[in-house]
Write a structure and sequence with these properties.
The structure holds two protein chains of two kinds. By secondary structure, chain A is mainly beta. Chain A has no helices and eleven strands. In chain A, the strands form two sheets. In chain A, strands 2, 4, 5, 6, 9, 10 and 11 form a seven-stranded mixed sheet that branches. A four-stranded antiparallel sheet of chain A has the order 1-3-8-7, with no helix packed on it. In chain A, a hairpin with a 6-residue loop joins strand 7 and strand 8 (75-79). By secondary structure, chain B is mostly beta strands. In chain B, 0% of the residues lie in helices and 51% in strands. In chain B, strand 7 and strand 8 (64-69) form a beta hairpin. Chain B is globular, with a radius of gyration of 13 Å. The chains are: A mainly beta, B mainly beta. At the A-B interface, strand 4, strand 5, strand 9 and strand 10 of A face strand 5, strand 6, strand 10 and strand 11 of B.
C-alpha cells in the first residue's frame, strides 16, 4: 500500500540554524500538508499546498517557515532560524480529493525536531 | 473559527469490553467532515473512521463505530471488543472542505488485560 514517507525521523539542531524537513507524498496525490505536534499537545495545522502554491496557512506559519515542491516527488518544510519553541513532531500529509468530496489525509510517520 | 473538544484526557477499558470516547465541535457550517485518528506510541497518525455531515447513517468500520449527533454537534467513537492494540491516543478532527484538519486535544485510551 502506498504511504507517505518523511526524512529524517529525528533532527537535532541548534537555535538559530536552518532546518529542512523532507516528505515524499503518495505519488498520485494533489494536496500536501504540514502539521506539527508539540509534545503532549494537540496536532496543529501549519500549511496546505496545491498546484505549486500555498492554498491555506495558519498563524503559526510565519515568515520563518516556507514550503516547496522542488521536484515531482518531494515536499519540503524549511524553518529559517529555529527557536526552542519549534521543537515538535512535524507531520506531512497528502490527499487526492475527489470531485465534490473531501478525501482522507494520509499522514507520514513524522519528523521529531529538537532545537537546543 | 471551528473548535474541537475532547473532554476525556484519559480513558481505560478492560480487554474485550466496549468504550466510548467523546468529541464535540463548534461550527456554523452545515457541510463538513469528521474523523477519528489513532496515534499509537510510534506517533504515526492513522485514520480510524470518517463521517460526512450530510449522511444521517452513522459510520462503522469493523469494531469501530460513531454516534453522530449533528444538532448537538457531537461525534463519539465506540470501540467494541477492545484489544490491547487499541491502546493509543485518539484524536477527533474536523474538516469543512477547506483542506485544514482541526484536531481536538486527544484522549489517551488504556486497555487493561
Amino acid at each position: 500500500e502506498p504511504e507517505v514517507t518523511q526524512t529524517p525521523s529525528h533532527q537535532v539542531t541548534q537555535m538559530g540554524q536552518e532546518v529542512i524537513l523532507r516528505c515524499v507524498p503518495i505519488s498520485n496525490h494533489l494536496y500536501f500538508y504540514w502539521y506539527r505536534q508539540i509534545l503532549g499537545q494537540k496536532v496543529e495545522f501549519l500549511v496546505s499546498f496545491y498546484n505549486n502554491e500555498i492554498s491555506e496557512k495558519s498563524e503559526i506559519f510565519d515568515d520563518q517557515f516556507s514550503v516547496e515542491r522542488p521536484d515531482g516527488s518531494n515536499f519540503t518544510l524549511k524553518i529559517r532560524s529555529t527557536k526552542l519553541e519549534d521543537s515538535a513532531m512535524y507531520f506531512c500529509a497528502s490527499s487526492e480529493p475527489d470531485r465534490g468530496a473531501i478525501d482522507e489525509q494520509y499522514f507520514g510517520p513524522g519528523t521529531r525536531l529538537t532545537v537546543t | 473559527a471551528q473548535t474541537v473538544t475532547q473532554s476525556q484526557p484519559e480513558m481505560s477499558v478492560q480487554e474485550a469490553e466496549t468504550v466510548t470516547l467523546s468529541c464535540t465541535y463548534d461550527t456554523s457550517e452545515s457541510d463538513y467532515y469528521l474523523f477519528w485518528y489513532k496515534q499509537p506510541p510510534s506517533r504515526q497518525m492513522i485514520l480510524v473512521i470518517r463521517q460526512e455531515a450530510y449522511k444521517q447513517q452513522n459510520a462503522t468500520e469493523n469494531r469501530f463505530s460513531v454516534n453522530f449527533q449533528k444538532a448537538a454537534k457531537s461525534f463519539s467513537l465506540k470501540i467494541s471488543d477492545s484489544q490491547l492494540g487499541d491502546a493509543a491516543m485518539y484524536f477527533c478532527a474536523y474538516n469543512n472542505a477547506g483542506n485544514m484538519l482541526t484536531f481536538g486535544g486527544g484522549t489517551r485510551l488504556m486497555v487493561k488485560p
